[in-house]
Amino acid sequence: MNGKKKRMILAALTVMTGLVLTLTGCGQSATSPAGETGIEDSTQAQMVSTTENRVMATGTALSGGSGEAETEKEEDFMRITVGDRVLTAVLADNSSAEALKEILMAGPLTIDMSDHGNMEKVGPIGQSLPTNDEQITTGPGDIILYMGDSLVIYYDTNSWNFTRLGKIQDVTQTELKEVLGGGNVMVTLSLGEERASGEQTGTVQAADQAEAAEPGQGEKPVVYMTDPITPEGLMAVYDAMGRDMKGKVAVKLSMGEPGGHNYLSPDLIKDLVARVDGTIVDSNTAYGGQRASTALHLQVAEDHGFAAIAPIDILDSEGTMDLPVAEGEHLTKDIVGAGLADYDSMLVLSHFKGHAMGGFGGALKNISIGVASQNGKLLIHSGGASDSSWSGGTQDDFLESMAEAAKAVSDHMEGNMVYISVMNNLSVDCDCDSDPAQPDMHDIGILASTDPVALDQACVDLVYAAEDGASLIQRIESRNGILTVVHAQEIGLGSREYTLVSLDE
Length: 505
Hints:
CATH architecture of the largest domain: 3-Layer(aba) Sandwich
Largest sheet: 10 strands, mixed
Shape: elongated
Oligomer: single chain
Number of helices: 11
CATH class of the largest domain: Alpha Beta
Low-confidence stretches: 1-73, 194-217
Number of domains: 2
Strand content: 25-35%
Radius of gyration: 23 Å
Strand order of the largest sheet: 13-1-25-14-24-23-20-15-16-17
Number of strands: 25
Mean pLDDT: 82
């Protein structure tokens, strides 16, 4: 970088599944809960350096060479109306989508679509469009041009030579199948300027044009990032947040299931844990394994080296307590270890990675499932149906219940929490797995924020931006993992829009 800091602040939209533009530069975005400042020391981390070859999902990027802001073509949005439901899609960047856009500029297009193969709806466009066929494995929400003159909306997977027209946003597979129904359906396409479910930003701003004032209500929270995964890097992102841990500090992390080896290293975190004078906390597992009792869990803490760097507290070792869940759709309470009441603030150290049930595990999972007691874990997994059984709810109920439990913990701690996520050893499996799959993508870095929603979204965005992230992306999408982040924003825990600040030169 020629010895210069490239000073940029980016605001970018949330990840868009299946549609990623390859750009030069770095950009993601995500809003802190009302009252959170995100930055308390205006002298800290005002500069943002671009990271070459990172991809942002909004089509707005920074030049990696001159350090000047460069705005790319804005995405085109298309509305899909089925009965009284309106979905929003992002059109692809190719001549086929441009031709469809030209048709829609003359007015809405209604297509009679029939079901085919229990995986798609297909119907005639009425004219031929140019094709840009490539080998594609479709997913729910993919909009495809077939044979040049038919439009297909996929609600399941298929692999073939297709032309991609776009991608429906912010809808689960279950919701999409419900909207499209089981037989023929009339679908109306029209042009739209923004998402039906939210507001599009996508701005690029140079640091010398932005003030380092504390974000207020309605402003985007900051996610700080450094590439080096070192004790110094961990300390740097913590300092950048400008938040001092008050009183007795809980350091929430997973100490890993024996047999696994991807959990955070004690050598990586020990300096920061000592800096905050923290106690490492966790709760016993509900699935069995070697952390299902306090005695076993403490043995794991010793065997994995955590007991050597800090005191250990298994939160539910002496009982449980209920935290209220305000206006939850699935939960009315979150059952956590009674030991949580002993702490004044919490440093949440998360190893970001995949997860067999949640799609991925980051900050939100760490403070929901991770803080919940054994019966509290069952309550979350069952979508609020039972605290003694895993069953009773759907996958989406479980994902949304994690968000609600996380909100309950945040409310209990009265916002005295900061979040750091380490993106290394990026397996598709969790640290709770005693035999996790080997990672097949590169390490990315360390991220930190006072907003857990922004932090998880930024981590997901970086996985989608990675050239070797296919396995983890498939794990996230197959479990509809992003729903936890979506619901967390809906209930006011944080925002998926953020400003990504690199601390590296």
